[in-house]
Amino acid sequence: MRQSKLFSKTERTPPKDEAARNAELLVRGGFIYKNSAGIYSYLPLGLRVIRNLSAIIREEMDAVGGQEVLMSALHDKKYLTASGRWDVDVVYKATAGGEREPHFNLSWTHEEIMSEVAARYVSSYQDLPFAAYQIQTKFRHEPRAKSGLIRGREFLMKDLYSFHATEEDLRAYYAKVGDAYRRIFERCGLHAIYTLAAGGDFTAGNTHEFQVIAPIGEDTIFVCGSCEYAENEEVSKLAEGDSCPTKCGGVIRREKAVEVGNIFPLGTKYAEAFNLKFTDRDSSQKFVVMGSYGIGVSRLMGVIVEMFNDEAGIRWPAAAAPFRAHLLALGGGAGDEAARKHADAVYEYLQRSGIEVLYDDRDASAGQKFADADLIGIPWRIVASPKLGDGAVEVKARDTKEAKTVSLKELIVEIKEHSKV
Ligand code: ATP
Ligand code: MG
User: Fold this and answer.
1) d(CA 151, CA 133)
2) Between residues 22 and 336, which one has the greater pLDDT?
3) pLDDT, tens digit (0-9, with 9 covering 90-100), for 118-167
4) Residue whose CA is at the smallest distance from ligand 1 atom 21
5) In the CATH hierarchy, which fold is given to the domain comprising 3-310?
6) Per-residue pLDDT tens over the stretch 64-114
7) SS3 69
8) Closest Cα to atom 13 of ligand 1
9) Does position 421 have pLDDT exceeding 70, yes or no?
10) Cα–Cα distance, 6 to 9 (Å, whole number)
11) Quick one: which of 295, 266, 258 has its CA closest to 182?
C-alpha cells in the first residue's frame, strides 16, 4: 500500500489523554482512534493487526474443532434474567422508543445466547460434543478504562463454548484448548503463563488464566522462577520467596501481569438455566456439561505493543505486524523522477515476490520517513535510493541497529528466511 494514500497520519506529539504506552503509540502511529475513554476505532493499520491476530486464533480454534459463528450483540433481557446475571454491574443496558425500563443489554459475554442456541439442536448424546466460537465485540462498563486497548469498554473477544455429555469429556477438551492457547500466544510473540485462577462470575470451581508478566498488568500472580507454576493472588496462599509447591526446587516470585485469555469449566449452570438437556445411551435425561474459553483479541494487540516497543516506537513481532516490510523512497526531492521510478520498481518487485509492503512514497524528508518507520514498527525497513546503485537496496530489521546494502534477490531471501510466521 502506498503511504501517500493512507488516510491516517502519524503524530509526533503524544496524545494528552492517554496514560498507557500501548495507546500512546497506537494513536500516534495511526493504528487506532480514540472515540471516548476505553472506546477505540481501528484504522487501516490497526485493523490489519487485528486481522493477523484473528487469523492465528481462527487457525488454532479450527484445529480443535471449533465451528465459527457470529452471535447477536444486542440481547433481550430474558437471557440474563434466566441466568440471574441481569444486574451484574458491568452490563450496559439499552432503552429505546421512549421506554423507561431497559429491555436489552449489549453483549458482555455469550454463555446465555449460545446455550439457548445449543438447546435447539442438542437432543441426544450423539449430538455431543461440539464447540462453537466467535470473534466479536463485547461491551463492559469498566470504571477504570485507562490502559488503552488492555481495558476497553468496547473490545474484541474471541469466545469459544464447548458442550459435552460428561465431565471427563469436558476435562479432556479443556486441556486441548489450553494447548491451543499456548500455541496462539507463542505465535503472537508472547510468553503467557498458565495460571490457576478463581471462578469469577462463571463457576465456583477453579479456572485457568494465561497471564503475561508486564508492569501495566492489573493482576498479581505468584509464579515459580523455575517451572513457572503460577497462581493468581485471588486464589493463592503463596507468598514471595516461598518454595514452589510442585517441589521443582524453584522459588516463588510476585509479579504484575495481564490476563490475555482464560478457560472456564462451566459445569451445568447454563444448561440448567436454558434447559439444555440430552438423552444419554441409557435413555436418561441429563444436562449438558459446558466450558467457555476467552481471549481478548484487542487486548492482545495492546499487550504486544506494551511488550515490544522502544523510545522510537513499536517493534511488531512478524506475525502481528500490519505489513512485512516498510519501503522508504529516498534521494531526490519532490521533483526527482529518477528516484521515484527507482523506488516504484522496488515496490513492484516486492509485491511480485509476495511481500506485503507499506511504501512510503510521500514527499517527506528522510528524517521524517525514518522516524515514522520506527514509530509504526514494521519488522523490515527497506530504503530505495538511486545512490545505492543499480538493483541494490538498504535493509534493516526494526530491532537491530545495523543496516546493510543488498541486492533485491538477497533482500527477498533475507526477509523470507528471518520472518517465518
Ligand atoms: P479482567 O479480569 O481483566 O477484567 P475478565 O475476567 O473480566 O478479565 P473474561 O470475561 O473472562 O475476562 O474475558 C475473556 C478475555 O477477554 C480476558 O481474558 C481478557 O483477555 C479479555 N478482556 C476482558 N475484559 C476486557 C476489557 N475490558 N478490555 C479488553 N479485553 C478484555
Ligand atoms: Mg472483567
Assistant:
1) 22
2) 22
3) 999 999 999 999 999 999 999 999 998 999 999 999 999 999 999 999 99
4) 296
5) BirA Bifunctional Protein; domain 2 (3.30.930)
6) 999 999 999 999 999 999 999 999 999 999 998 888 999 999 999 999 999
7) coil
8) 294
9) no
10) 7
11) 295
26, 108, 264, 299, best to mutate for ligand 1 pocket (most atoms within 8 Å of CB): 299
In angstroms, the Cα distances linking 32 to 23, 145, 152, 248, 301 are 8, 16, 13, 44, 11
217 — phi, psi (to 5°)?
Answer: -60, 140
User: C-alpha grid cell for residue 420?
Assistant: 517465518
Residue closest by Cα to atom 31 of ligand 1? 296
Q: Which amino acid residue places its CA nearest to atom 9 of ligand 1? A: 294
One-letter amino acid of 288? V
Is the shortest distance between the CB of 294 and ligand 1 below 6 Å? yes
Residue closest to 289 by CA, chosen among 308, 310, 320, 266: 266
Q: What are the boundaries of each domain within the chain?
A: 3-310, 325-417
Instruction: Mark residue 249 as left, alpha or beta (left: phi above 0; alpha: psi -120 to 50; beta: remaining).
Output: left
Chosen CATH of 325-417 out of 1.10.1740.10, 3.40.50.800, 3.30.470.30, 3.40.50.720: 3.40.50.800
Distance CA 215, CA 255 (A): 8
The ligand minimizing its distance to the Cα of 219 is 1
CB 302 near ligand 1, within 6 Å? no
Q: Give the ligand at the shortest distance from the Cα of 39.
A: 1
- Burial code (b: 16+ CB inside 10 Å, e: under 16) for 291-318 equals bbbbbbbbbbbbbbbbbbbeeebbbbbb
Distance from C-alpha of 201 to C-alpha of 212, rounded to nearest angstrom: 22
**Residue 291 Cβ contacting ligand 1 at under 6 Å:** no
Structural contact between residues 268 and 188, judged by C-beta atoms closer than 8 angstroms = no
CA-to-CA distance for 47 and 53, rounded, in angstroms?
10
Report the alpha-carbon distance of residue 40 to residue 312 in Å, rounded: 23
Q: Which ligand is nearest to the CA of 200?
A: 1
Spacing, Cα 121 to ligand 1 middle (Å): 29
Query: For residues 327 and 360, is the Cβ–Cβ distance under 8 A?
Result: yes
Ligand 1 and 200: CB distance under 6 A: yes
112 Cβ below 6 A of ligand 1: no
Mutate to test the pocket of ligand 1, among 39, 89, 157 (most ligand atoms within 8 A of CB): 157
pLDDT tens digits for 347-360?
999 999 999 999 99
